[in-house]
Amino acid sequence: MALDQGLGTDRLLAGDVVGHDGPQHLQLPVLQHVLLLPARGDWHSSRQSASLAVVQPGAGRSGSWQLVADRVWRAVAEPDSVTVAVVAGEEAALVVDPGSTPEQGRALRAEAEELTGLPVRGAVATHAHSDHAFGLAAFDDLTTWGHEGLAEALRAEPARTAARRLGLDPAALAAPNRPFALAAGVDLGGRWVELAHLGEGHTTSDVVVVVADAGVVLVGDLLESAGPPWWGEDSAPDAWPATLDAVLGLLAGGRVRALPGHGPALSFSDALLQRGQVAAVAGEIERLLVAGTPVEQAAAQGSWPFPVEHVAAGVPTGYRRLTERGVRPSRDLPITPVRRPD
């Protein structure tokens, strides 16, 4: 699959890796804007904090957003304390991860226009989970971007269940109207924003958003700083470490800032550490499979770098993916004693 027509190699950060399909470090004071919803999301435990000021949609406006880089703003939306972002060029703005419901998406769209003084050109979802993608319907008259796997994921039962828990009609969920397999570009006028699927990890359809001239990469839930990352039925435990290698390549040793889907920016060293922990999870799942541990016992018997509840839902998926690759439990071969000749 070729890169997007508008995405030339000269537009990527020096040393970037954009490849296999299947391919940052913000330390600024945070003025967090919280968009309230009464219900709780389906994929993440609630990350609400008593230290966060609670602001109703429409209150506070641009004063509640954190400017994290040149014309890049961050806010926090509930019920899952997800990072939502606005990126502005000279002519238009882009919303990244447009909230948990169409109503929340509409509020974010209005605030983005007031914040930047520019029309919103569209929105991008970094993956299909409710807190990142269910607000896409509020932008359906514009261009919406996401990995080509989002449409199927939003039709699947986990997404439908999450929609019902949020009081939404599952049929009203909107998939991106400009899906892509590997990469796409968004022209905001004087600023080019790149969207790239570097590989599978937290889900099979993760996307990162590269704002090269601002030195920022929005990495969705491939990395987390509000707490440990999460594995689910739609995760790719075996592929996640390699995808993070590509993300680390974008960070250019810390010269580029990484903004995760939950929590403030990660330092390069913290991102590197988390990559190692994610690799440890992948290795432990394979060890358990090869050792013949039954899948229903694997999560409880494993040795994990994170609380088991963060990992457990991804273990059966990890077993399945490894089995599809031909990994099998090892078998002890019978040992026949050899007698020395007299």
From TrEMBL:
Residue stretches in coiled coil:
none
Which parts of the sequence belong to the Metallo-beta-lactamase domain?
Answer: 81-262
Q: A single Pfam family, by name? A: Lactamase_B
**What's the name of the protein?**
MBL fold metallo-hydrolase
GO terms of molecular function: hydrolase activity
Gene3D superfamilies given in the database record: Ribonuclease Z/Hydroxyacylglutathione hydrolase-like
Q: Do the record's keywords include Hydrolase?
A: yes
Origin species, per record, is: Auraticoccus cholistanensis
